[in-house]
Write a structure and sequence with these properties.
It contains one helix and five strands; from the N terminus they run βαββββ. The protein is mostly beta strands. A five-stranded antiparallel sheet has the order 4-3-2-1-5, with no helix packed on it. The longest helix has 11 residues.
């Protein structure tokens, strides 16, 4: 099984506005909406064109590298990427969730 790092990627999304409005109303809506996003996942690949994250991976069979729920983020949209350090939490200890 591959050891995929877990990362947090901040990125700027695209949007589309398909109704008839005055230009100033569109610009006000765009300013109000904000297009910043964050995604957390297993870093499958990064290159000059894109960053690919998997939301899930199989851990049952160590001979296979099955992944699922991919998001492909264009590199030009990436604002930052930070590696996260997984921490084991005892889910039976209610204090761990505080």
């Amino acid at each position: 099984m591959k050891d995929y790092p877990v990362v947090l990627v901040a990125w700027i999304d695209s949007s589309s506005y398909g109704s008839w409005k005055m230009e100033e109303n569109f610009l006000a809506q765009i300013d109000k909406d904000g297009l910043g996003c964050e995604s957390v996942g297993y870093l499958v690949r990064e290159d000059a064109a894109r960053v690919i994250l998997a939301q899930s991976r199989e851990t049952k069979d160590n001979d296979r590298d099955q992944i699922s729920d991919l998001i492909v983020i264009p590199r030009v949209a990436v604002v930052s990427m930070r590696r996260l350090v997984p921490e084991v939490i005892d889910i039976l200890d209610s204090r761990a969730l505080e």
